[in-house]
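Re: the request from the purification team.
They wanted to know what the chain is likely to look like in 3D before they choose a buffer screen. I agreed to run a prediction and write the result into the notebook, where they can find it.
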Amino acid sequence: MKKFTLSILLFILSMFVVAQCNKANPLESSDSAQDKQQSADVDYSAPPNASFTAEEVTVNAKGFTLAGTLLLPKSGARPLPAVITITGSGQQTRDEPIPIPGLEKYRPMRQIAEALATRGIAVLRVDDRGVGKSGGRDTLMTATTSSFADDVRAEVAYLRSRPEIDPKRIALVGHSEGGLIAPMVATTDPQIKAIVLMAGGGKRGDQISMDQLNDALSRATGLSEEQKEQQRAQEKEIIQAVQSGGDLSKYPPQVRLPWVKEFWTYDPLPTIRKVHQPILILQGALDRQITADQATLLEQAAKGAGNKDVTLHIFPNLNHLFLPAKTGAFAEYSKLETTSIGDGVLKVLGGWLEAKLKKQ
């Protein structure tokens, strides 16, 4: 068997860079201790003197339930506008915690939810299927990005069932893989009011994986040009085998998941061209997982298809996690000095959503 070293490491990174490690890989056995820790991690109470309340809710999906937290502003005319947050790749709990030393306290989706609720917008964030307090673990072996889009559709239906929520003023905010999911849902639901893509991919998944590999190889030390070319050839071999439905027995088990084939064959640009709702694209200039040129590709595709309400905002010095960085490299994550979303992100996001969700 060949040694698939750097290429496989990068592939797993591309899938699970912000994932809950064990539960992000459904081929691994369950860990009751980790289950308990995840359940504890999602327990939430609104901060003292907050201008919103927090309610634990249950969403009926296809054959299982999703557990989440709904933040409801205390003031403001009912029914309220609302946002659903959509996490990145890997099965994640509702706050999208980052399982990297030094970033354990970073909860980007919680920060986003609280900031929006303070502006008078209700926010629903849920545990992905199979983790936290959500059901559906037995579906993880076959789940794909399209499956997770169905989960978001169930969340939309839940919000529309709530009398406090205006069914025609619901927006989606997706990070990373969530930035792929939001357009999928918006194209099938014209009542979705707006979508926000935070570091959402603008290329087919196989191209993203190759870009990540080439970026790492450009900075790798101790490898000859011949060894680097071997790594590229190995990556291409794996991708082609997955895309063609070939024999995958000699490759690591992760690449056999249906999620992987969809990721490596799905092109987000045809979907974004079908989105007629307002689109906000947020991107860190130092993002090394989803590079800034992909945000431009999304903007150009949407505008080229006739969408006249597309806004792109690229933040200098922010990485894939929307944290201040120097290089944006994954190796730098454990050395970052803050666990607060970068300056200006919440202001731009909140202001744009307030404007788009304003009652007409």
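For the purification team: The two ends are 62 Å apart (CA to CA).
Please add any questions underneath this entry.
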